[in-house]
Design goal:
The chain is mainly α and 133 residues long. The chain is 68% helix and 0% strand. It has a domain of 67 residues.
């Protein structure tokens, strides 16, 4: 005997699956459109509220501005800002000492090279083809 399932039961199962898929799809679209806002929040972006609102507006603009929101959220770097300011580099005393030591080594090597060059004049290379003849 075959197990018979009422067609109305299958209709309700299909309706439940369809409803679940629609709800998951809506949640996924909202989650994806909040990614730039989450990035901005994580980076403590000064315009994070504007990015959040623009993400909702992009839902109604057929997602045209969403990639620009992503870029906008990533432009601000935590601790650095927008990266347009000039950064003053302060050298440590250890770095200055190391630089002086390297300069002394370079001067010593240049002296050695100069000394070697004056002590031994270069010998002309003999042409081996002349010797063969």
């Amino acid at each position: 005997m075959a197990l018979a399932i009422d067609p109305r039961t299958l209709d309700f199962v299909a309706l439940g699956i369809f409803t679940t898929v629609v709800i998951v799809f809506i949640y996924l679209v909202i989650y994806i459109h909040d990614i730039p806002y989450e990035i901005a929040k994580k980076r403590n972006h000064p315009h994070r509220d504007a990015i959040h609102i623009a993400g909702w507006v992009s839902l109604f603009l057929m997602h045209v501005i969403w990639p620009f929101l992503w870029i906008w959220a990533y432009l601000y770097k935590p601790g650095e800002g927008w990266g347009l300011e000039t950064v003053e580099i302060k050298e440590s005393p250890e770095a200055e000492k190391e630089l002086e030591a390297l300069k002394e080594k370079l001067a010593a090597l240049e002296e050695k090279i100069e000394k070697i060059g004056t002590e031994q004049p270069m010998q002309p290379v003999k042409n081996t083809q002349e010797e063969v003849k």
